[in-house]
């Protein structure tokens, strides 16, 4: 979450209709649980320690209301324009002792934005759940055929698998799976893959359809669902 330290800029961002508030709320609503707050344009307030402390205090209060735990959030003072504290520690803020965060996995410390990004804990990939692959697009590729493309959300996708597309209820075999023009023996959650399917026309399936394993709880219609 980027916050501008400039006089009036920070205040506008966290006001009732401000973008900073909106972005934090959107991130939390979309399921993002790890946050880094970088306070940018510190050069415009002469690297003021009091301004930095004021912004941390105000921001901690409002991200707590959104649902984040401020103790698990690194606060990093930076100047994107000059590159301070982005990759290398800056000499412009001798008062800055570094950021620290405490999570269930333990505590970590650092000085730069890059270190804060490196300290993000990778999410567990839900490989044990049934396959769910929402289609982002469907291509017709000469000499290959119909190639649906999308990101695997849960489960795995392998060549030879028989998949069912919902809600059109169409079942077919996967001939091959590839990512970045390389053949895969298995696609995992988080992978953006293209896969070639047998005897299916581009007109049969479309963006928004969901592919699942026909033998393991394929996606089906429901009467109701619980929204987050």
TrEMBL record:
One Pfam family here: GTP_EFTU_D2
Segments crossing the lipid bilayer: none
GO-annotated cellular components: cytoplasm
Domain of life assignment: Eukaryota
Keywords assigned by UniProt, alphabetized: Cytoplasm, Elongation factor, GTP-binding, Nucleotide-binding, Protein biosynthesis
Compartments where located: Cytoplasm
InterPro entries according to UniProt: EFTu-like_2, P-loop_NTPase, T_Tr_GTP-bd_dom, TRAFAC_GTPase_members, Transl_B-barrel_sf
Residue segments, region Disordered: 208-228
Domain Tr-type G: 1-127
MF (Gene Ontology): GTP binding; GTPase activity; translation elongation factor activity
The protein's name: Translation elongation factor 1 alpha
Taxonomic source organism: Bertia orbis
